[in-house]
Write a structure and sequence with these properties.
single chain; 9-stranded mixed beta sheet
Length: 286
Amino acid sequence: MKIAITGGKGGTGKSTVAISLAVEFAKNKKTMLIDADVECPNDYLLLSAKRKKYCDVYLPIPKWDFSKCTKCGKCAQVCKQNAIVFVEGKYPAFVQDVCIGCKACLVACPVGAISETKKQIGTIYIGKNYGVDLITGELKLGELASGEIVNEVRKYSEEINKKLKDEIILIDSAAGVGCPVIASLIGTDYIVGVTEPTPSALHDLKRVLYLADHFRIKHGIVINKCDLAKEFCLKIEKFASKNKIPVIGKIPYRKDFVDSTIKMKPVVEINPEYRKIFKGIIEKIK
């Protein structure tokens, strides 16, 4: 079973929920947690898991043979990222950091002057703690292709799991609704939308749930910090009821969550009382 934890807005507690669910799942089933927030991965810190490098991730990029180039500019015309700058009568200039490796320029070149090379864009790490197998993707500083890293993390997780045989795979997505998030959601069986009782969080949650509907993936809502604004929490519940979306969990805000971050331990290990909440969420997902 593959479960994505997302929510749109940053800071709603996605990683806290993902890690706590992973630790609770791992008590009964072999469990993998994928940290797909590749621009700022921190699940290994919150799990106190020592990670080791599994492999580097590379992106295909174009390479020009100017002895063949006719300066036609067709490569620049098809580059939607504007990674190729062309001035008539001159050879094209390539802005490597902007390229996303779509290979349109290779196809468009009429004289075969463009071949393929590659550049490193990130790294995949593995680790384990509390019975949870952790896979982390990390985007190289200055690179833009975070969605590609998430795709590679998902691909390598399948490869790794042939040996581990984990039954539950949890994917902790990045904030937002862009390519990295979409790459996290595709192919999952259930989406947990984590929100908080604020207007901006509900606004972003609606955008994420639109994606869930678009991909026809079952989903539910977890309201984190539910006691900080009880009236707005009721508003979220009314929205859920109106749209027939189950609220699968409500988590109060306590100092335990601060301690969890400082001590780098899952909140269910800091205070066992939270196990009941996360076990309830697991039962509702099932």
